[in-house]
Amino acid sequence: MLSKSIVFLLSTVACTVKAFAPNGVSSLSFTTVSSTLLKASDFEVDVIIPPSNSGLQAQMKFKPILDVPSEIIEVRYKLPFGLDVAPKNNLAVVTKDGAGGEKVGDVLRYTSMWSLGLPQGDGLVSSAAAFSGGIGWQCSLFDVMRASAWEQVIEALVSNVEQRTDEVVLLFERPLADTE
Prior knowledge:
10% helix, five-stranded antiparallel sheet, mainly beta
């Protein structure tokens, strides 16, 4: 039975990226949503799926990619938003601190992405819409590490437009501060 929670069990692979830096920044929030002290520990993160009033939540579990202890930082921007990310060692790395809380050196792991698809769920409305071919815009979380080309990352980021949503969600992996 499907519920309002969407469960993702995701793994990571390396990708090749280029640079991305759109203009215009409007911050909504900055939250540390999980941390790990050992490289082998998985991140377990609950993320509210856009738009902000959707009521949908993704329960995610994925492995860290950094070779040092790290944490996941959730950043939400009102639209339009700005982001300074560039390629470094096959990762999408933040090059300039952002108003939403991302910091230089953070690695972009996930972004909200909109695509056309059939309605999901186990209710009468979603079943009827599926049989009638009713498609609509749906939001998911795009795994930046699975992108085979930078264009896929760009498409995911720019799919977050005001006609579909009021915010974009970005998950960054950040090295933990030295605790010595």
